[in-house]
Amino acid sequence: MADFSAKLKAPVYVCLLTYGCQMNILDSQILSGNLARQGFVVTEDETAADVVLFITCSVRDLAERKVLGKAGKLNVKRNRRPEVVLGVTGCMAELKGETLLGGKNVFDFVAGTHKRHLIPELILRALCKRVAESEVTSVNAEALERLGIALAPYMDECLPAERKLFAVGRDEAEDSLDELEAMRPRPWQAFVEIMRGCSNFCSYCVVPYARGPEVSRPADEILAELKTLASSGCVEVTLLGQNVNSYGKDLPKGSISFPELLAEAAKIEGLKWLRFVTSNPQDISDELIDLMASEPKICRYLHFPLQSGSNRILKMMNRKYSLEQYLEKVAKLKSAMPDLWLAGDLIVGFPGETLEDFQATLAAVERIDYANNFLFKYSERPGTAASKLPDDVPLEEKKRRHAELMALQGKLTHEHLKSLVGTTQTVLVEGHSKRNRAVLQGRTTHFANVVFEGDPSLIGKFVSVKMESATPLTLYGSFERLPGDEELTNEKESG
Ligand code: 5AD
Ligand code: SF4
């Protein structure tokens, strides 16, 4: 991989705009670390940036439209700074590839999901081109002078027109960015990727096309990363994969399974809370449920997507389980951990979804009593199996079903939060509340959102908070004390 750090003789400012899931947040942290190591200056200020890089999501049409809308707005601002580069990576880049360049498109380069390592080079090529073509004005003179110094060693190499400005697919050398260089804004909390891609092919979903088949990271690499994180003060880790329960199935025989990996992670001193997403119902094992119940470091929260409460729709979605099988898993989970909070994903308005199907979803949500649900209106994705079915639920009806489900889930979420009022909970403090910077915000083991008054020095620490009231989405409490080490886990609750 080219290393530019020795040669960048003036700052080049890069701003990353991240859309979509936790995978993209982690990708953005890894890219930030990689760019910083290569001598770029990563900034959150998009107006000061020479390069804006979009880390995109294609799971729904809306996610793509958001990116295109934002890129369009930034393009207008290039009237004043024509040298600014707009780049795109992530799922949308992989799926749309070269079509995002040229014509009416505003992007200067495209890097697919397996080409993250080429981004520094693509940035330089695009920037050299823009700088060479930009007229000097009173607005951009200073920036052009600075960029001229930074780019001088690259101009000859980057300018020839045949230099490619896109890289997608999995043909060349694989992406091998070092996760350890990720720039994590909160050092006490980390996302760690345990696998990439998905081989499930749910009929509505574009992820297997955008991210490729499931590829597990070797366990020793993951555990080494966890140990490094723990030794630098990280206390909470969320293991990431589209389908964590099939971890290791693509690795050589004898490799460890997901529950075994989790058990090893729990042995690491310093790590106090372990979370993981996403668990698909068909693959969750008794072994995992037993481990969750007996291992106090594993948080009492499980993301366990149902997608629909109708067996007819589940079948059309290629979800590989029935509602009855799902309920059976939920019963096992709840009997092993009565205090477990469940979250899910649901899609309304899948092709052919009748009112009866939708009623089945409502009934399932009520029965399962989710603490939270991510609710989506079906969005037809080109190339997926479901895109061959007529998208026949009208948008107005999708909106109506979505709102009805939101109201039901809102009630259940509020009930869950209210059930904690009067109790004292261990909370990991994440920062200032976004709405009111005078108070602190954190999460319980159940991932409940908690706001309380406290000293900013508590940020990044575990605290005991007495819960006093609950609004539909937030618990309000008062700081009691710093908990003892033995209280940090849910040992007592599960014992
Ligand atoms: N339309 C609507 N929602 C979708 N999801 C995935 N694909 C689509 C689609 N085409 C939802 C699923 C998945 C979550 C990440 O996004 O619920 O679990
Ligand atoms: Fe998409 Fe299904 Fe894979 Fe999740 S499990 S990423 S919904 S194909």
Features:
single chain; 495 residues; alpha/beta; Rossmann fold; pyruvate-formate lyase- activating enzyme; OB fold (Dihydrolipoamide Acetyltransferase, E2P); 6-stranded parallel β-sheet; 5-stranded mixed β-barrel; disordered C terminus; binds 5'-deoxyadenosine; binds iron/sulfur cluster
Task: Please tell me about this protein's structure.
This protein has 495 residues and is an alpha/beta fold. It folds into three domains: 4-167, Rossmann fold (3-Layer(aba) Sandwich), CATH 3.40.50; 179-417, pyruvate-formate lyase- activating enzyme (Alpha-Beta Horseshoe); 424-487, OB fold (Dihydrolipoamide Acetyltransferase, E2P) (Beta Barrel). The protein contains 15 helices and 19 strands. The strands form five sheets. Strands 2-1-3-4-5-6 form a six-stranded parallel beta sheet, sandwiched between helices. Strands 15-16-17-19-18 form a five-stranded mixed beta barrel. Residues 59-60, 204-205, 305, 307, 345, 347, 376, 378-379, 381 line the site of 5'-deoxyadenosine. Iron/sulfur cluster binds at residues 198, 200-202, 205, 207-208, 242-243, 280.
